[in-house]
Amino acid sequence: MVMIQKIPVTILTGYLGAGKTTLLNRILTEEHDKKIAVIVNEFGEVGIDHQLVLNADEEILEMNNGCICCTVRGDLIRLISDLMTRCDRFDHFVIETTGLADPAPVIQSFFVDEVMLRKTQLDAVVTVVDAKHIGKHWDSSEAQEQIAFADVILLNKTDLVSAEALGELESKVRGMNAIATLQRTQNCDIPLDSILGVQAFDLKNALSIDPEFLDEEAHEHDESVYSVAITEIGTVDSDKLNRWLNQLIQAKGQDIFRMKGILDIDNAERRFVFQGVHMTLDGRPGQPWRSGETRKNELVFIGRNLDEAELRASFQDCFAQTYAHV
Asked: Which in 28, 34, 68, 180 has the greatest CB count within 10 A?
């Protein structure tokens, strides 16, 4: 009887802006002799995370307009089932969830579907924790679930907090999850053999956290957290953009959990990529624009008390010339 070689799966989770995409880029670009298929899920109707991933190609599969743990879980199961027909091409699957995902229903997918149960093996749930900003979201049920269900926890951005604060955070995390492997990181710099192929997931531990998590019941999200997506065509003036973003984080930074964008700045050869978490902003050149490609500006904001009309109008003031709405 021929044994079926199960494909290991890593679930990559963590609250908004913790560093999941940074870790994913490390997984895709460092030498590890694995052929990896990546599934990226986004919160909102405009998907741009695949453009934030280096060397993105047909192995980066994207799902948006919903949380991977509820409205698009059926899509996840179908997508992995389709990938199974190409199983000779892949050694490992990595699922990057939206920062607002409760990991329990994602884990559940691997046990309630016959194909997933027979052909995949959940290797580990890896949770990235933003050491600087997690305190603002500690009461979020999603952030707590992400830590509680983790097999490996990366306390990331340790360079941005004091040793005392880091020690207190580590004790707090340990109080919520005493069995996970805990690593301190900067920019998610960690040997990949610490997170891939570790065979750390244990169903008994998951059931001890939530005895009913294999039951197919809907879960609830914080309805006060939502996304605003903006898509426009036109060249953005860099000086106007800098002023707008700085004014925005000063006025609304506490309410903006996450922001990210792909922009056509000053008609440059490369797209401009910016990301932000609360009061912190980072921007740099991204992939080159292809010849003949429509240069779209795509922005996503996730947070509370977001005024969509105001965000759209203020962004329009950043354009260097007449533009068209998409």
From this structure: 68
Tens of pLDDT, residue by residue over 75-111, are: 677 777 777 776 557 888 888 887 666 777 777 778 7
Pick the CATH number of 211-317 from 3.30.1220.10, 3.30.530.20, 3.10.129.10, 3.40.50.300: 3.30.1220.10
Closest CA to 37 of 120, 109, 115: 120
For 115-143, letters b (16+ CB in 10 Å) and e give ebeebbebbbbbbbbbbbbbeebeebebb
Closest CA relative to residue 248, chosen from 261, 259, 233:
259
pTM: 0.65
Architecture (CATH level 2) of domain 7-194: 3-Layer(aba) Sandwich (3.40)
pLDDT in tens, 59-75: 444 434 344 344 445 66
7-194 and 211-317 have identical folds: no
* Cα–Cα distance list, 5 to 82, 109, 122, 248, 290 (Å): 17, 19, 13, 51, 40
